[in-house]
Structures are given as structure tokens and as C-alpha cells.
Specification:
The chain is of the alpha+beta class. It has seven helices and eleven strands. The chain folds into three domains: 101 residues; 35 residues, no CATH class; 129 residues, Trna Endonuclease, Chain: A, domain 1. The strands form four sheets. It has a four-stranded mixed β-sheet, with helices on both faces. Helix 1 packs antiparallel against helix 2 and helix 5 crosses helix 7.
């Protein structure tokens, strides 16, 4: 949900709160409640007084005047709530007016509204999430090289060469779901070791990079051990499974399925409207 929609919803809510409080206050006594702590006897004392003459106070007895005490206490609570609600509404009214005057554009969205010819010659310092994702996706990065004897040719919808049919499926699904990714992008770990995660994925709203490793030969014991060592290497460098690192699996008897990978990627990395 857009910010302006949230603001206008809050405006409507505050209007109802203000009107509701005013209706209740009309039926409450005109006096004001005063409270004092009598330390000599360790009791709270309640007094009422007119708004115009607070010095002339009437003692309210809890055993006979409790109804009046409750009404005046409620009145004081509602008056404080009303004061806060009015201040909040005033602030939101100003922001909504600003938003309307600027045709719904926030500061980081001004670049989005520029003509394409102007974008090419404008050095933008503030990027919207969409523009940041485009910039991130367009940046050059160091790939892992293919062995010259590797004759496999799996080409993604974006024209990238990948190493397996499953990686082809994952890459094309990421692209279909508009999830920014880089294939086998160089990553320098904290200990200085260089690795190439299968997929580096950008979380658009948080602008954080996550990593996806496809474990494609889980029927091979040596491969299993290799992947265990790789996951441990990630963890030793504060990249933890389920937080920054995610894994997909398959074996000869259990191949990767399109529906499974779609649901997995959408659930993990799909950006949902809030």
C-alpha cells in the first residue's frame, strides 16, 4: 500500500476518533478533576472544580461520589486523547497537502518521473527501490569461468550461460518473478576466501544481498560432504542458512520441479505489497 493511502486512512480514523470524543465530552460534567496524594494517611484524594476557578475545589468522597470521580477521570483522559489526536491530524493534513501539491511524488521518486533523455544525463543521488534494483542488475561483476572442456550449453532467457538444467530453471524463474539476481558472482568472504555462490539475489526493499545454492547431486556421498563443507564455510563467515543463505535440493531419484521452485522463490524473495 502506498504511503498516501495509509495517510488518508489514518486521517479518516482520526476524524472518527475526534468526533467520537467530542460527542462523549458533551455528556460529561463541566468540572475538572484534581488529584492529590495525601502522604500523611497514604491515600489519594479527589477534588472537582470549575474550569474558570480551580482554587475553589470540592472534595469528592469515594464512597458517595465515585460515579462523579469516574466521569471526571474519563473526561480528563478523553481531553488528553483529543489533544494528541488533533496534533496528529494536523501533522498528517500538512503531509497529505504536501503530497498532493507534489502530485504524489516523494523525494526519491522524482528521478522516476524524469524523461528518459534527462535520466541519461542526470547523476541521481537518491534512488527508488525500482531504480536501485535496475542499477544493481546492470552493474558488471566478476563471474566464475567455465572450463574450456565443458561443452554444456544452457542459456537463460537473459542470455546467460549456466551449468545445468536445474540452474537454468532457477534462473528463468527468478527472471519471470522479477527477482534481481546475479549468476555465480564473485564473493569475498570475511576470511579472504573467494567463492562463487550459484545465485546472488537482491532483496529490493531492504537492498540486502542473499545467496542461493542449488544442491543438485544429493545422491552422491562425496557431493554431500562437499556441500556440508561449503555451508560450514558460509556460517564461519556469518552467512547463515535461513537468514542470508538458502538452499534447494535434488537427486537422481527426486528431480527439481517447476512448481516447487516457483513457490520457493516466490515465498523467499517475492516482494509483497504492504
Amino acid at each position: 500500500m502506498e504511503l498516501i493511502d495509509l495517510l488518508k486512512r489514518r486521517q479518516m480514523r482520526l476524524n472518527k476518533i475526534v468526533n467520537g470524543i467530542n460527542r462523549i465530552l458533551k455528556d460529561l460534567p463541566p468540572q475538572k478533576l484534581y488529584v492529590s496524594n495525601d502522604k500523611r494517611i497514604g491515600k489519594i484524594r479527589f477534588y472537582s472544580a470549575s474550569v474558570s476557578n480551580s482554587a475553589d475545589r470540592t472534595y469528592l468522597k469515594p464512597d458517595t461520589d465515585m460515579n462523579t470521580i469516574k466521569m471526571l477521570s474519563t473526561k480528563r483522559y478523553l481531553e488528553n486523547s483529543l489533544k494528541t489526536a488533533l496534533k496528529e491530524r494536523e501533522a498528517i493534513d500538512e503531509l497529505v497537502e504536501f503530497y498532493d501539491v507534489n502530485e504524489g511524488k516523494l523525494c526519491h521518486q522524482i528521478y522516476d518521473s524524469l524523461d528518459e533523455s534527462l535520466k541519461e544525463v542526470t547523476d541521481h543521488c537518491l534512488l527508488s527501490d525500482i531504480e536501485y534494483a535496475k542499477w544493481w542488475q546492470s552493474c558488471d561483476y566478476e563471474h566464475k569461468m567455465f572450463n574450456e572442456y565443458d561443452s554444456t550449453e544452457y542459456i537463460t532467457d537473459r542470455g546467460e550461460r549456466v551449468r545445468s538444467k536445474s540452474e537454468l530453471l532457477i534462473a528463468n524463474m527468478l527472471n519471470k518473478l522479477s527477482i534481481p539476481y546475479r549468476y555465480e558472482c564473485k564473493l569475498v568472504l570475511k576470511n579472504g576466501k573467494v567463492i562463487y555462490p550459484d545465485f546472488t539475489i537482491l532483496r529490493i526493499r531492504s537492498r540486502e544481498e542473499n545467496y542461493l545454492e542449488h544442491c543438485g547431486m544429493m545422491g552422491d556421498m562425496h557431493y554431500q560432504n562437499t556441500m556440508c563443507e561449503r555451508v560450514n564455510l558460509y556460517a564461519e563467515n556469518d552467512i547463515i542458512v535461513g537468514k542470508q543463505l538458502f538452499l534447494t535440493f535434488e537427486s537422481g531419484d527426486c528431480p527439481l520441479k517447476t512448481k516447487v521452485i516457483r513457490n520457493t522463490l516466490q515465498s523467499l524473495f517475492g516482494e509483497k505489497d504492504s
